[in-house]
Amino acid sequence: MDWNDIRVSLAVARAGSLNQAAMALNMDQSTVSRRLTALEAQLGTTLFQRSRHGVLPTEAGTVFFASATEIERRATSLVDQVQAAGGQRAGVLRICGDQWTLNRLAANGLWGFMEQHPQIEMRLVSDIPHPTVWHQDPSIGLWFSSKPADGAFAVKLGAVPYAVYAAKGTLPCDWVKLRAQNAAGCRETYEADPSNDPNAEVRLSCTDAATVLESVAAGIGKAVLPRCLGDNDTRLTCLSGPEDDRHRTLCLHVHPDSLSSKRVEAMMAWLRTSFPLIFLPICPGN
After folding, report:
1. What percent of the chain has pLDDT over 70?
2. Which of 13, 147, 179, 219 has the greatest number of beta carbons closer than 10 A?
């Protein structure tokens, strides 16, 4: 039995369609279909019920995928254990999240982690992971959400402080609003108006904090921004007082299949240690 055929069948089961599985595996749909047909012929049974809406596992398919998933998990764990025994944590490690959070990682110490673990190939993905991603290379999500998707679970990383900012020399009435993604793929609005004024006008909505910052600096309006971004930008002035204690909780999203990976273990430890440097404002004098 060809393991590549099994891997393709698992991707189809997780994606629910041949087309989505092909995209996740970076294959042609015809190749996915051919491998799936070959596996079913070898097993002498049908693994999926096919329709124009997608595919669903048959009873035999459900039994097969449960065992195949366990084999996949054990194989990944075996590779990591052997590499760890040899002093290595080799392979790909994927981190998914909003673009600005990934920018903060890249600019604040990620290179040091990579120097400590030269055998790890880092992949930063500013998008919602496809369900099959969790079952390919070990992956971690960084999301401002406590509702993980696709079987992952959330671990609180820390509270990221936010404040209201405007361009220096301006007192705008209008707002620029951040609509960031969460792990379920929805656009999550972080309400910008501290007074909940129903007459407040939102002139612009953006899906990334870095774009919000540039819009505020250009004088389009005021906005709620992470303090680790706003405090360091000389073009902005903070409008929040010391009593304005607003924050959002940043969580690590990890799938159980990735939890046993030494790569994931090393990155989670680094993120916990580095969180203040990456996501907290720098105090004067430090």
Report:
1. 82
2. 13
For the chain, list the domains and their CATH numbers. Answer: 3-84 (1.10.10.10), 89-286 (3.40.190.290)
The model carries a pTM of 0.70
Rounded to an integer, what distance in angstroms lies between the CA atom of residue 54 and that of residue 61?
15
Q: Flag the least confident range among 2-11, 39-48, 151-160, 186-195.
A: 186-195
Q: 46 or 80: which carries more pLDDT confidence?
A: 46
The region that residue 150 occupies, defined by phi over 0 for left and psi between -120 and 50 for alpha, beta otherwise, is: left
**Closest residue by Cα to residue 64 from 17, 18, 21, 1:** 1
Phi first, then psi: give them for residue 174, nearest 5 degrees: -85, 160
Q: What is the pLDDT of residue 14?
A: 79
Which residues have CB under 8 Å from 52's CB, separation 6+? none
Q: Which residues of 213-224 are buried (b: 16+ CB within 10 A; e: fewer)?
A: bebbbeebbbbb
Q: Is 190 helix (H, G, I), strand (E, B) or coil?
A: strand
Mean pLDDT of the chain: 82
Quick one: average pLDDT of 262-275? 92
Q: Is the dihedral of CA 128, 99, 253, 109 positive or negative?
A: positive
β-bridge mates for residue 246, sequence order: 162
54 contacts 224 by C-beta, under 8 angstroms = no
Tokens 């459900």 locate to: 62
CB 130 within 8 A of CB 184: no
- Does the pLDDT value for residue 131 go beyond 60? no
Tokens describing residue 127: 């998008």
196 pLDDT above the threshold of 70 = no
Per the rule left: phi > 0, alpha: psi between -120 and 50, beta: everything else, 109 is left
The residue with greater pLDDT, 53 or 43, is 43
